[in-house]
Design goal:
Length: 289
């Protein structure tokens, strides 16, 4: 027998019951995503290595001092550092070297945009954003979306910092801190609602750019986020969310969100670091999958 699913509440009803949590993404839980009707898809893994790439690498290896081979070796070192370094700063430096530059697909990087709620910035997630070449408000921008990057330890650090501050403000005992932290820590890091917040902030940034340039053509806002995890030296993870204006308006005018809206599923891809010499091309190809 199929168990009937409960109807989804509109956002204004969720706000009425959980006003503080909705405005602070660090407090979001899986239950909040369930109420929105949003979920993470199962992971798919990209292909590791085409035969042609093996042949190309063999040719490069035989060229010794060839400038192209030296450059290729430098790329491999950056990928290795991205995979094995324990420093979030070094990982961030390496991913920028691999994706951002004059002859690379992304033209610049900077601190990620804030998350907006009810027309106001309420939280800035600790991530970096990569801007593709071209204009954000142009549809099908070379197939490359506005993309963020974060090391998952930064999310855990933000949660601990926020809860420690809350604990001190009310002079609560330490066990209250750990109890509160356990309630908002996801069972699976890869289904952390905070990742949804970052994807939303990326989509909101595109929407604002579109309005600034008076573009009214309705098209999906495609937001991507690359994530590394300290406990995993094998993969980098790509999360992707494509939303329409109607989804973003729910958080822009929550007081008017009186009907439930089903959110698209968050697409999840795991990209192996190894072999290092094909990682750069594989991660760029993943944006088109």
């Amino acid at each position: 027998m199929t168990i009937p699913t409960l109807p989804l509440p509109p956002l204004n009803q969720i706000v009425g019951l959980h006003r503080k949590a909705v405005k602070c993404p660090l407090l979001w839980t899986a239950e909040h995503l369930d109420w929105l009707g949003c979920r993470f898809d199962d992971f798919t893994t990209t292909a590791v290595l085409p035969d042609a790439a093996l042949s190309d690498h063999a040719n490069l290896s035989n060229k010794g001092k060839d400038s192209h081979a030296i450059k290729h070796h430098g790329i491999q070192k950056e990928v290795e550092r991205l995979a094995v370094s324990s420093s979030p700063e070094m990982k961030s430096f390496s991913i920028k070297k691999l994706l951002v530059g004059d002859k690379l697909p992304f033209r610049r990087s900077c601190a990620g945009p804030e998350f907006f709620y009810a027309g106001r910035p309420v939280h800035r997630p600790p991530y970096v954003i990569f801007y593709p070449r071209g204009r954000l408000y142009e549809p099908n921008n070379q197939g490359l979306p506005l993309t963020g990057y974060i090391h998952y330890s930064e999310i855990k650090r933000q949660r601990r910092k926020y809860n420690r501050r809350q604990n001190r403000s009310c002079s609560a005992p330490d066990y209250k801190f750990w109890d509160r932290l356990s309630r908002i820590t996801p069972v699976k890091w890869s289904q952390d609602p905070y990742l949804f917040c970052i994807l939303l902030s990326i989509a909101q940034r595109q929407s604002r750019s579109k309005r600034w340039h008076h573009q009214h053509l309705e098209s999906p806002y495609r937001a991507c986020l690359l994530v590394t995890n300290e406990s995993d030296c094998r993969f980098i993870y790509l999360f992707e969310l494509s939303v329409m204006s109607e989804h973003l308006k729910i958080f822009e005018r929550p007081d008017l969100a009186r009907t439930p809206t089903i959110w698209p599923t968050i697409k999840c891809i795991s990209i192996p670091f190894e072999p290092y010499f094909t990682f750069q091309s594989r991660i760029l190809a993943a944006f088109g999958d």
